[in-house]
Write a structure and sequence with these properties.
It contains ten helices and three strands; from the N terminus they run H-H-H-H-H-H-H-H-E-E-H-E-H. It has helices at residues 5-34, 37-64, 78-106, 114-139, 143-174, 178-181, 184-211, 218-234, 266-280, 297-300; strands spanning 241-247, 250-258, 286-294. Keywords: Membrane, Transmembrane, Transmembrane helix, Transport.
Length: 302
């Protein structure tokens, strides 16, 4: 029996929540003691992530609820909405970090302990990579786990840049470039913000596309079109009109065929629908399929 993707999703989110809380709290303390703005920035990024993981957990539970009279199609929109919040919050954190870095540069730089910065960067990057490895499997089936994977990937990149910057600062101070070394820490924040911004933008774009009922990813769209084409060949039907969109784990598919009057019965339409549904049903998605044979082109065309 195939594993339930929802249980994998829940475990992945709970792990992310636990590690985010522990690492974020440690980063804040570490940043205050070392005087490093980039470590403080990373800590704030992590602690902001706690709220986002909690939102993802609520979204996952909401998306699983059964349809009601008020929500006859269910609440699968909670998933892309949570992804949008992930992207928007990540962008807001980057703007805050970049603004703080500019202020530090204007005020003459930072006197952060370079050795402490290097140690933190290595520890944080190692933990981020471990979490990324764990999330890689669930992320194939869950958009919420995928959003967490993107966030941890951004965190790993930030931590690696922290470590590299700390090494650079150590070298500069040993070569009597103390004044220039003071600017390494805030410059790192600016570089990290620029590097992570595309990831945050991608999350926001992905969530907005789903909420606006955009077409599903190319591979999924190709599978749907192949199933519709196979039905047309099997029952000698004309080329189908195919529409599809994905909302969280719900996959909406509409396949329409324009046929001649008097040639088809309701049970024939049922057989075509069953043919398409059997080829698209999967444990990965909850399929909502509509297959229609119509003699009126105005009912099925845009």
């Amino acid at each position: 029996m195939a594993a339930d993707p929802r249980s994998h999703e829940r475990r992945a989110l709970l792990l992310s929540l636990a590690v985010t809380g522990a690492l974020g709290s440690a980063a804040l303390v570490w940043g205050i003691i070392s005087g490093s703005s980039v470590i403080l920035f990373d800590g704030l990024y992590m602690l902001a992530g706690i709220v986002l993981v909690a939102v993802s957990l609520v979204a996952a539970r909401t998306a699983e609820t059964r349809p009601t009279p008020d929500y006859p199609f269910g609440r699968h929109g909670a998933t892309p909405l949570a992804v949008c919040l992930q992207g928007a919050a990540l962008l807001a954190t980057l703007v805050y970090g970049a603004s703080d870095a500019v202020a530090v540069i204007v005020n003459g730089g930072s006197d952060a302990s370079a050795g402490s910065v290097v140690a933190y960067g290595i520890v944080s990057a190692a933990l981020s990579l471990v979490v990324m490895i764990f999330l890689r499997g669930p992320a194939r089936l869950s958009q919420l786990a995928q959003a967490e994977l993107v966030s941890w990937r951004a965190g790993a990149l930030l931590s690696l840049m922290v470590a590299v910057g700390g090494v650079v600062a150590v070298i500069m101070r040993r070569s009597e470039a103390e004044s220039a070394a003071a600017y390494v820490d805030p410059v790192l924040v600016l570089i990290a913000s620029a590097a992570i911004a595309p990831m945050a933008t991608s999350l926001l774009r992905q969530g907005l596309r789903e909420l606006m009922e955009a077409a599903p990813p190319a591979e999924l769209r190709a599978n749907i079109e192949a199933a519709a084409a196979a039905a047309a060949a099997e029952y000698e039907l004309p080329d189908p009109i195919v529409r599809a969109t994905r909302l969280g784990r719900r996959l909406y598919v509409e396949v329409d065929f324009l046929v001649q009057p008097g040639d088809w019965r309701v049970e024939d339409e049922d057989r075509v629908r069953r043919f398409v549904v059997d080829r698209l049903e999967s444990s990965d998605y909850q399929l909502w399929a509509t297959v229609e044979l119509s003699t009126d082109p105005t009912l099925i065309e845009d």
